[in-house]
Specification:
The protein is α/β, with parallel strands linked by helices. The chain folds into three domains: 200 residues, FAD/NAD(P)-binding domain; 110 residues, FAD/NAD(P)-binding domain; 108 residues, Enolase-like, domain 1 (2-Layer Sandwich), CATH 3.30.390.30. The strands form five sheets. Strands 1, 2, 3, 4, 5, 6 and 16 form a seven-stranded mixed β-sheet that branches. A six-stranded mixed β-sheet has the order 17-18-21-20-19-22, sandwiched between helices. It has a four-stranded parallel β-sheet with strand order 10-9-8-14, covered by helices on one side. Helix 1 runs parallel beside helix 8. The longest helix is centred in the first third of the chain and has 24 residues. The chain binds NADPH dihydro-nicotinamide-adenine-dinucleotide phosphate. The site of NADPH dihydro-nicotinamide-adenine-dinucleotide phosphate (NDP) has 23 residues, from helix 6 and strand 17.
């Protein structure tokens, strides 16, 4: 028997890492974790949680406008960025504490500094070396900026959560999750947003109907520069930035937010001291049990770049811990993972897009409705919601569910359960709706591709 200091050494106390620590410790393992930043990782500190708080803040702008149709006479709205930041920071500090307590209460050894692999079963942290039977890499990802002159003047999603002042205007570069969410958030908070995206429709990878719809909705609210790239950024004498597009157009702006993707965090991790391999995108390569090419070293979450979502990292971390210390033989199921983009309106998606189904060569039917939410009959807001089901013809299973509309994330979660259970279109149809809601549209879709108004 080898003499190890720990049964499991986790590098990175984000979603996947902390979950693995907790489950392993509950199963009796001696666990250590190293984290050089705040506990909770991207999700808690620079992602999901603060972003959702900002998103709530931004929604009040719409509520303020919408309430007039319902008889309210609102006064002048004033928004104070510093209050939002202070309240957000307080909440994040509370969550950091909760994460730390999860670890401390289980007697998990915490190293608040950077750790490096020094061998197959060895980690160096705080100037000491420790031996561990298993090691889990859960170091997450980091924003990545495209390369162009002046890109150092652009901020990323890391900095936007701590901006001392809200700029009057911003150029957001990219058309993915972060670009879409921050375009909506900052627009809602009163910033003049220009979104520059190299493609024709936002949110590549989402269903084409959703992409067309959301691009249209965005264009009603903010300036979209599609099929455009940023060629350079420079600072003008007045302190403003100038973003120069490939069209030659120059946009004067307070900030530029580069939301051009994230890369796995593997720098200075000591991978060269092991047999661990990386893919072309930098992601650590793992097998179906999340084990790297170095036996005993595992990796989960954004650093393996499979599905870079918090709940996926949690599930992966849990699977590894249960397998190593609970003898359980689960495999991660990547089918029907729901996800939401918290832009305005929200987007949610479960299962396959129509393009994916086409590629698979399956016969399918599409049920699609563009619906005017009941609320907007009085608010007067020019906003529709889109809902779409894709049904495999042979099995009649609902294999794709897509939505753009208010609270889409809240709404899609329940449908994801049904789809994971293999729900058919007939199961949807015989489910009684909750009236009057947008959600009931999913169980009352009789015709393929229709456009109508709620209640008609
Ligand atoms: P995404 O991959 O979603 O989007 C990156 C964007 O940058 C795309 O529009 C992409 O364009 C564009 N881009 C990439 N390379 C270049 C380039 N060389 N020049 C110009 N444009 C470029 O990344 P995000 O940073 O927005 O988010 C990272 C991940 O974090 C997401 O994929 C998601 O998994 C996760 N996330 C999840 C959230 C949620 O669940 N709500 C919220 C935020 C993030 P193109 O489409 O043409 O490739």
């Amino acid at each position: 028997m080898e003499n190890y200091d720990f049964d499991l050494f986790v590098i990175g106390a984000g979603s996947g890492g902390v979950r693995a620590c907790r489950v392993a410790a509950d199963l009796g393992a001696r666990v250590a974790v190293a984290e050089e930043r705040d506990f909770g990782g991207t999700c808690v500190n620079l992602g999901c949680v603060p972003k959702k708080l900002f998103s709530y803040a931004a929604h009040y702008a719409d509520d303020w406008e919408d309430c007039r149709g319902f008889g309210w006479k609102p006064g002048t709205a004033e928004f104070d960025w510093s209050s939002l930041l202070a309240n957000k920071n307080k909440e994040i500090a509370r969550l950091n504490g909760i994460y730390r307590n999860i670890l401390k209460s289980r007697k998990i050894r915490i190293f608040s500094s950077r750790a490096r692999l020094t061998g197959a079963h060895e980690v160096e942290v705080g100037g000491e070396r420790y031996r561990a039977r298993y090691i889990l890499l859960a170091t997450g990802g980091w924003p990545w900026k495209t390369s162009f002159p002046g890109n150092e003047l652009a901020i990323t999603s890391n900095e936007i959560f701590h901006l001392p002042e809200l700029p009057e205007s911003i150029v957001i570069y990219g058309g993915g999750y972060i670009a879409a969410e921050f375009a909506s958030i900052l627009h809602g908070l009163g910033v003049a947003v220009t979104l520059v995206y190299r493609g024709e429709k936002l949110l590549r990878g989402f269903d084409e109907d959703i992409r067309t719809f959301i691009t249209g909705e965005f264009s009603k609210r903010l300036r979209l520069e599609l099929n455009r790239e940023i060629e350079s950024i420079a600072r003008a004498d007045n302190g403003q930035l100038r973003a120069i597009l490939d069209s030659g157009e120059e946009i004067a702006t307070g900030e530029v937010l580069c939301a051009t993707g994230r890369k796995p965090m593997t720098c200075d991790l000591g991978l060269e001291n092991t047999r661990i391999e990386r893919q072309a995108d930098g992601a650590i390569e793992v097998d179906e049990h999340f084990e790297t090419a170095e036996p005993g070293i595992f990796a989960v979450g954004d650093v393996i770049n499979r599905v870079t979502l918090t709940p996926v990292a949690l599930a992966e971390g849990q699977i590894v811990a249960r397998r190593l210390f609970g003898g359980q033989d689960e495999n991660m199921d990547y089918e029907y993972i729901p996800s939401a983009v918290f832009c305005h309106p929200n987007i949610a998606t479960v299962g396959r897009t129509e393009s994916e189904v086409k590629l698979e060569g399956k016969d399918y039917d599409v049920y699609l409705a563009k619906v005017r939410q009941l609320k907007h009959t009085l608010s007067g807001r020019d906003e529709l919601s889109l809902i779409k089901l894709i049904v495999e013809r042979e099995s009649q299973c609902v294999i794709g569910l897509h939505m753009a509309g208010p609270d889409a994330g809240e709404l899609a979660q329940g449908f994801a359960v049904a789809m994971n259970c293999g729900a058919t279109k007939a199961d949807f149809d015989r489910t009684i709706g909750i009236h009057p809601t947008l959600a009931e549209e999913f169980v009352t879709m009789r015709n393929q591709r229709k456009v109508h108004a709620v209640g008609t």
